[in-house]
Amino acid sequence: MSDALINGLAGAGGGIIAQLITYPLQTVNTRQQTERDPKKDTRSQGTLERMCQVVKEEGWERLYGGLMPSVVGTAASQGVYYYLYQIFRNKAEAAALQQKKMGVGDGSVGMLSSLVVAVLSGSVTVLLTNPIWVVATRMQTHRKELNRTPADQGLLVSTEQPILSAVEHLPYGTSQVIQDIYSEAGILGFWKGVLPTLIMVSNPSIQFMLYEAMLVKLRKRRAWSKKGSNGVTALEIFLIGALAKLGATVVTYPILVVKARLQARQDKTGDKRHHYKGTWDAIIKMIRYEGFNGFYNGMGTKIVQSVLAAAVLFMMKEELVRGVRFLLANDAVKPKHP
């Protein structure tokens, strides 16, 4: 089994575990990002307060709205990303060794090369998996409203509206979300927010650049202090992953908010503030109607969720890779009986 495949499978497994642990935080954060009315009280609510409100008004299950497509998206994204990352990094390492033979460099992959590897891997992953995240975002931001008629909500009731209103309050499943997205914008609707998402590739790129740099330094220090041993513990991986993700999240969070706004259901009721035609339109309207503070809605929640998820992901991935390699090594040394 190749290193790329091992890393891909381990990345998918670690990503699923991290997703399951932090998903309620992700749901609350997506709602905070897509809240467009600065006058609403929810804008000043803390993470736990907002979570309790969702549970009280809509039930526990709404904290896990869109969990299935999110798990599929996480498995696909992490699996593809780590698989491609390992392939590109192997090529970068081979190129660095070749340059060393020519008297250039020390044979190690530099920061710039690590950044290029991460960007290439992330860009391909985004293009392949964006439709899954559009579906997940729609399900996370869907409000469950029970026992309320169109009249209760201040809507005009006509002979044509009751059927539509009734459908909107049925359980919002994956198949219905897919139908809604397709009816709104066709096949291109599944790639809404792809531009800011591609820009967001810089997040894991910065994250992995910081992670690799800290990991290399720690291993070198460990090798020097323990006479050749460069092992890193799961706790150290957890802390390094958390620090790397923290730095990347602070830098790129405004782009993440724009992406969530574009992927959520657009309000076409006539309020131009709530309808975005594209990335630049969203940015301009957010600045005009909400100010720069709108780009940082729910940042505290995101920092907690993303740092915890990234730390768990890195820790679990390294442990899974180590376990698989151990099993393969043991299998290779077993005597073969005729």
UniProtKB/TrEMBL annotation:
The protein, known as: Peroxisomal nicotinamide adenine dinucleotide carrier
GO molecular function, one term: transmembrane transporter activity
Sorted UniProt keywords: Membrane, Repeat, Transmembrane, Transmembrane helix, Transport
Family indicated by similarity: Belongs to the mitochondrial carrier (TC 2.A.29) family.
Main location class: membrane
Record's bilayer topology term: Multi-pass membrane protein
Solcar repeats: 2-91, 109-217, 232-323
Originating organism: Glycine max (Soybean)
GO BP annotations listed: NAD transport; transmembrane transport
Gene Ontology cellular component annotations, sorted alphabetically: membrane
InterPro entries named among the record's database cross-references: MCP_dom_sf (IPR023395), MCP_transmembrane (IPR018108), SLC25A32-like (IPR044712)
